[in-house]
């Protein structure tokens, strides 16, 4: 079964304490996301915000907190485009969660890493390892 969450209300913004730059903006979610969905959405939001001028003070660590997306350090220059970026990141995380494999595959996140390690090990055993910096 796939996991999906949605923004259910308008964002709420509060000023940060004196000495900190920007505001704290909270987007309420339809449920409490899993850690995996939260990491995926955070990565997609980082991609959405890459290249934006006013994100220098924004913190993107642990932004999914319970039933909210919490962004601290939001500057006024970023505010007009932030809601769209968050919505696109949430939608993309939902799409990715829907494409995930069976529950057995999701229960073993190291499966792909082990497959890569096995491939590297077989290349080394076969003598196919190239010297560092050899891109030929």
What does it look like?
The chain has 136 residues and is of the alpha+beta class. The chain has one domain. It is built from 4 helices and 4 strands, in the order ββαββααα. The chain has helices at residues 35-49, 79-99, 103-107, 111-125; strands spanning 12-15, 23-28, 64-65, 68-74. It has a 4-stranded antiparallel β-sheet with strand order 1-2-4-3. Helix 1 (35-49) crosses helix 2 (79-99). The termini are far apart. The mean pLDDT is 81.
List its salient traits.
alpha+beta; 136 residues; 4 strands; 41% helix
For the largest beta-sheet, the strand count, sense and barrel status come to: 4 strands, antiparallel
The counted number of beta strands is 4
Order of helices and strands: EEHEEHHH
Straight-line N-to-C gap? 44 Å
